[in-house]
Amino acid sequence: MTGRALGGAAMHNTTEVFLIALLIIFAAPYLVWRLARTDHYAPLVVVQIIGGILLGPGVLGAAFPAYYAYVFNPQVVGALNGIAWWAVMLFVFVAGIELDLGEAWQRRRETGLTSGLALAVPLLFGAGAALVMLQWPGWIGPSGTRWQVVLGIGMACAVTALPILVLFLEKLAILRQPLGQRILRYASLDDVAIWGVLALILLDWQRVGRQAAFLAAFAIAAVLVRKLVRAIPANDRWYVGLVWLAACGFAADWSGLHFMVGAFIAGAVMDKQWFDEPRLDAFRDNILLAVMPVFFLSTGLRTSWGVGGAQVFAAAALLLVASVAGKLAGVHLAGRLLRWDKGEASVIGWLLQTKALIMIIFANILLDRGVITSETFTALLLMAVGSTMLTIPIVARKLPGLA
């Protein structure tokens, strides 16, 4: 299939237009990040997310509708979505593998108290913000109910982006230090809760039989796969892991949950020590480099200002205050109860309020299932970007005080 470029220019087939789209996706955010030197307050991953928003229908599509329709036509968007689905499944799968529940169990009192407060308090703040938003129409999706939207927005405000947190801890040179490992424990336990709440929100009573069958089959299959992975050579574990990932994603989606839920639990049942740590880190970094920018673009294509631009931005600001204040309040309460050293709660709270990818994935799933509208998604997306951009500048100033 071919399309005509603007102004009567030469014809391009779908493959060529697809490659033009990839050129824009990879080149534009990188040039902005490198030339504007945004790394201190907006790492490349944040610039890519913002780039996805700007390239979406709300900005580029509104300013240049003919150009936008030509480059991001349905065939190209379909191809990009396929890459985005697999990219984000890989990313979430690795996040599941990186969970260290054993360490969390050994320090269960400290980890449980901190993780619980760091999750529950911003969830309550976010749910309160959602109730304020619902005083006006336009936030509940066609398949959503009031309680699903309130709980979904509340959980979005409580999410910590574990993979992005790892990148930030590396950037701050504290990933392998005791403080960094503590923060990862808190975030890891919250990751489990996030996907559990998502499963509750997506519970489809018309498909509850399928979902029960999926969970039962998964429990049996996980035992068998764990035995298989332990028995095979290290290199084969990666390939078998991908087969396992695709199977779990399909089964979870078929059951009425979401392929992302399947991707996370597929990784969570794997032991991190089965995979070489440097290679696992490199694999995650390569996913971020090579395919996740496509996911950011596909995320940007979902942004909408249909309720009214001012109202969406006001909702985003409300959610940002709720998420940051809630997370800091919860962590400071944990620090007081556990008698942390002065300044620790502030640093830990600001790092744990990082949203970015996991919240965007979470909100994408709610949008896919019709629980929220595209306007709600846009407000959550803007909140995630703002939350993430605040992290490095603030923590970098506070860290020297802990030395």
Largest sheet: 2 strands, antiparallel
Major β-sheet strand ordering = 1-2
Q: What is the number of helices?
A: 19
Strand content: under 5%
Helix fraction bin: over 70%
Shape, please? globular
| End-to-end Cα distance | 62 Å
Stretches with pLDDT under 50, minimum 5 residues: 1-9
Backbone structural class = mainly alpha
The SSE string, one letter per element, is EEHHHHHHHHHHHHHHHHHHH
The pLDDT mean sits at 86
How large is the radius of gyration? Answer: 21 Å
The number of distinct β-strands equals 2
Describe the structure.
The protein has 403 residues and is an all-alpha fold. Helix content is 76%, strand content 1%. The protein is built from 19 helices and two strands. Strands 1-2 form a two-stranded antiparallel sheet. A hairpin with a 6-residue loop joins strand 1 (2-4) and strand 2. Helix 7 (108-133) crosses helix 8, helix 8 crosses helix 16 (309-338) and helix 9 packs antiparallel against helix 10. It starts with a strand and ends in a 5-residue tail after the last helix. Mean pLDDT is 86; it is low at 1-9.
